[in-house]
Amino acid sequence: MNSIHNTSVDEFVKEILNNNISYLSRAITLVESNNLKHQAKAHQILEKCLPHSNNSIRIGITGVPGVGKSTFIEVFGKYLTGLGKKVAVLAIDPSSSIQKGSILGDKTRMQTLVNDDNAFIRPSPSGESLGGVARKTRETITLCEAAGHDVIIIETVGVGQSETTVHSMVDFFLLLKLANAGDELQGIKRGIIEMADAIAINKADGLNVKETNLAKTEFARALHLFPAKESDWIPKVVTCSATENIGIKEIYEMITEYFTLTQKNGYFYQKRNFQNKNWLFETIDNELKSDFYQNDTIQKEIVKSIKMIENQEINPFHAAKKILKIKR
Amino acid sequence: MNSIHNTSVDEFVKEILNNNISYLSRAITLVESNNLKHQAKAHQILEKCLPHSNNSIRIGITGVPGVGKSTFIEVFGKYLTGLGKKVAVLAIDPSSSIQKGSILGDKTRMQTLVNDDNAFIRPSPSGESLGGVARKTRETITLCEAAGHDVIIIETVGVGQSETTVHSMVDFFLLLKLANAGDELQGIKRGIIEMADAIAINKADGLNVKETNLAKTEFARALHLFPAKESDWIPKVVTCSATENIGIKEIYEMITEYFTLTQKNGYFYQKRNFQNKNWLFETIDNELKSDFYQNDTIQKEIVKSIKMIENQEINPFHAAKKILKIKR
Fold it and tell me: What are φ and ψ of residue A232, in 5° steps?
């Protein structure tokens, strides 16, 4: 096998389309690289892979540490490969330095899935801003789909902003929870529950079963109070046990039901188009801002303005107008 | 009285600080004007009023049409003026052309409050973008506070984006609802319930009382499932009847409790600072964007890019990079 540098774009594309995992991995390395030459090559590979992408289902899975995410994804992934599906598991974890080991970084936690020929597991690119991770994950999805993966699972830790990012790139969003909601809920940011297409209450086994069923009823009632989703899908609350392999098949059937509904009513395609357009405008808006705020004079003026705003010497609107007048 | 043009900035400021309603009204007219000379004068008046503002409590009130908002605000406002408070009622209604008459535009709906010397009612500036309305409302708040108003009520219709805007400029956010939640909830956007510091179920009178109490229990249970608010305030669900003047006093006492708590724990001041800084950055970000997107070449390139993205010929990130390279 040639090195990254000696492998041509066409060879990369040909081998990725053949689901050659080693080429897929190296192409993702190019996508993740901060080297401009690598990025240019990645860009060319991506553009040739794009027409072959868009054929998978994309599932986001979130939950606070301790909920059993890794075990769930492993068992769920194995169930899917057992059905003859090719599964890719990616991660969004901008806080990887803090949450170390809580997410895919520690591959040993999905030992069985790692050794499954029909599964492809890739940890989150490390030491990156959320925007950087998001771009790289989106491009990795394209490459995995071109390589023929039918199901893309995006894992994230349910404690921060990253759920919104995951939500912006998946079709279906699954929230894993535990039954003893009181304390545990505190860790879940507001809004995540509303984004969920389904809540799966994990560890529904042994002595937990009763408590889990109670939690299920309670959450189903709470979700019922929210307005209907644009997708016409009514969010479901289910129970499962990843360690005991209970409820996994049912979760996949529920997800299949979601895709049948949304592909039929067109929401699936509409949402993907919407996500792509949003990505375009998000990139533009972020670059405009970072370009503006990086300027030293502007930074100094902002610090000064904030002080004046706090002292009630200027109103924020007029302070902004003044700052915008600074020659960039 | 001199005309707007012949009245000096200092005279405006002096009369506003004396709570001269006619000068206050004319200063708001300057704030709302799109004439650059008017805006410059408004700016000067605002800057001199700023040190005298920030002394009121700001309450946002929302609810779908039909919930009884006008009646509630009238009765609530009269209760406050009865306590010796000066009350200003402002409106945020970017959709006033569509929702015509549903909000303050129709002053006859608050006949009693309009004729109360201690109340000041100002309809939403018409025919404006939400951003424009927001800026004008924020500046109007400053003027009303300088004129000695103790309570600022910002009314909005609970059907769109405007609640987020109202939420960004008030201390306390009250959602008015009716008991028969099923259908009515559909009109309330996701997220509004989460923003609410209290939900008041209106029309709790006569044959409705039982149903209202049931709804109260149900909502209290649902709210309980959400994580604690940053303010340490636990959102309350209460019932009231504006037409029968039931529960109004209790709502004000609850709001007072909120202010006691948040002024003691510092959240009140923290939130106002945060809102002001957000307003600064919001204004900058919006101007950067409108400046960029107004360019014809850029607009054409965006349309072309969206087509290419839909056809899977380019990925959104690289399309954005290409658009950003266009000479502005």
Answer: 70, 0
